[in-house]
Amino acid sequence: MRYAYAITGALLLGGTAIAVTTSSNVGAQTAQNEGMQAAAPAGAPASLADMVEKLQPAVVNISTKQRVQVQNPFAGTPFGDLFGFGQGGGGQPQTRQAQSLGSGFLISADGYIVTNNHVVSAGAEGATVDSITVTLTNREEYPAKLVGRDAATDIAVLKIEPKKALPYVKFGDSTKARVGDWVVAIGNPFALSGTVTAGIISAVHRSTGAAYDKFIQTDASINQGNSGGPMFDMHGNVIGINSQILSPSGGNVGIGFAIPSEQAAPIVDTLRKGEKVRRGYLGIQITPLGEDMADSLGLAKNQGEFVQGVEPGKGADKAGIKAGDVIASVNGQNVTPEQNLSSIVASQPIGARVPIVIIRNGQRQTVNAVVGERPSEDELTNFAQQPDEDFSQQAPGNGGAANQQSLGIAAIPLTPGIIRQLGVPNDTRGIVITSVDGSTDAGAKGLRRGDVIITANNRPVASQADLDAQVKAVAAQGRNAILLQVLRRGQPAIFLPVRLRDK
C-alpha cells in the first residue's frame, strides 16, 4: 500500500512540473478525461451500481463459533505443560475456541437463508459448532438455526427470526447460462463484507471429480469467505451459489466455481421443508471411459461410463446390466464427463422406469430399469471395492519370462492347488500371473504375481497362448489397449485396460 501511494505521489509531482513548463500553451487544452464515459460492451449495463444496490441487502455474512479439541504436541516430554496445555491438565487435550466466516443470501422475507454446508460445518476433526450468527448489511445480528443440509452438493439452509420483513432474492434459470455471459458475485471475502466482483462465465457443467459436480466456472473474483454467496446474472437472478476456488495460493486466480441453480433450487426446496434429499440409484460400480479403457473396447473415449460391478437385486441387475457393459445414456441423456452417470441417475424420480442404452461387445441395446433410492454412504461402502489395495500403486514384480511376453505378463494356468494357495473361489477359471515386466503398462498399473486374469478382450483365457492370441486380435483391429478382467484375493474382480507393448 505504501509503495503504491509513493508511486502515485511521484506521478502527481511529475504532472505538476510538466504543467509549469508548458503553461504558455495551457489555455486551449483540456484534461484528457474531461467529459469522458466508456462505452459499455454490447448487452452489458454501463454500470452495475443500480442492480447491486438492490441486491446487496439480501446478501448476509455468516459466522460460526466452534469448540476444537487440540492435542498436546509435547505430551510425554518435559515440555508437556508449556503453551497452555498444563494448568493441571497433565498434558491432556485442551478445548479451544474457533470461528469460521462465509456468505449466504436470503430467499424469503421471513428469514430463510441459503449457504454452503461447509460454511456451517465443523472445520476440523473433533470440532463441534456451538452457534451460527447471521449479520445483515445494516449490521443487525441474528442467531440462526440449521434447517437442513446436503453434504453431497454442499448446500445448507438456515432460518433466522427477523424483526421485520427482509429483502430477499430468488433463483433464476442456470440452464440458459452461456459461456461468455456476464455475472456478478457478492459476498464477504476475507471478512470484507459486501464485496462485489464481476466477470464472465468461463465454463458450464464443470466437474472437479465429485459425483454430483455440475459447476458454473467463472473468472469473477471469488476468495475465501465468498463461499455460500450468490452469483447473479444481469437480470439480478441467482444462477449459482459460489462454492469453491481453484488456487495454488488460496487466493483468486480467476477460476471459481458455483453450484448452478438448476441443481441447487430443488435441493433448497426439499431442505426448507425439513425433508431428506433423496437420490436415484441403480446399484452399479462405475469407472470413467478414459483413453485406455475406450481403446481396449474400440470405443470413443468419454462417451459413456464402464460398469465394473453390479449389485445383486438392485435396478441395474434386474434390468440385465452386467459388469463389462458401457452405459451410454439414461432416459435420453447422454453420459459424458460434463454430465456424468451419477448425477443423471441421482436426478431420476425414485420408482421411475427409465430406458438405458448400453454397449455390450460393441453392440448397442436398450434395457429398462426401475430407479431405486440411493442408500447411505456407509451402506455403499459395503458394495464398493475395498480401497486397501490400489492397483495403480502396487509395486510390480519383474521377471525374465515376463520380458518376452506380449503385455509384459507371464502367466500359467490355474490348478486346484494354486486356487487354494491364492484363496480365490474354487470355481475361478483363468490364468495366474507369475511375473510382470515393470517397464510395461501392466507393471505401471500394478498387476503383480498372484493376480488372476479371468478374461482378455471379453474372452475367457486358460493359458498364456490364449492371452497372446487376444493381444494379437486387438492389435489387428488397430487398438492399442486390451481389456483384462482381473481377480485379486479379497477383492471383487475388476476390468483393467492395459496398453500393448511398443514394438
Account of the protein in words:
- The protein is of the alpha+beta class and 503 residues long.
- The chain has four domains: 52-159, Beta Barrel (Thrombin, subunit H), CATH 2.40.10; 174-267, Trypsin-like serine proteases (Thrombin, subunit H, Beta Barrel), CATH 2.40.10.10; 280-383, Pdz3 Domain (Roll), CATH 2.30.42.10; 400-499, PDZ domain (Pdz3 Domain), CATH 2.30.42.10.
- 18% of the residues lie in helices and 31% in strands.
- The protein is built from eleven helices and 27 strands.
- Strands 5-4-1-2-3-7-6 form a seven-stranded antiparallel sheet, covered by helices on one side. Strands 8-9-10-13-12-11 form a six-stranded antiparallel β-barrel.
- The longest helix is centred in the N-terminal third of the chain and has 20 residues, at 2-21.
- The chain is elongated, with a radius of gyration of 30 Å.
- It starts with a helix and ends with a strand.
- Residues 1-24 and 385-398 have low confidence and may be disordered.
